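Entry 12.
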Amino acid sequence: MKRKLQAVERDITEAEVARNGWEEKSWDVDTTIGHKFEELEALSIECNQALRRLKLGNGLQYVLNANGSSLAKVLGIDYK
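Predicted 3D structure (tokens):
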């Protein structure tokens, strides 16, 4: 009985260590995604300013969509 209890405790400890590892990885990924999204926002602002200077479109403007599931949806074009 004591061995089984020790085995269960060891399994619990290993599971907690694994969970903590995955949690740290998810924080790293979340931080990386946040930085990349900020970079995309800055690039879209630059693109919009260049479009206005070149007068290429009638109200053509890039707008980021944080809820997009694909690159085309994230970097959508909004006609204003």
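Annotation: The helical segments are 2-54, 71-74. The two ends are 71 Å apart (CA to CA).
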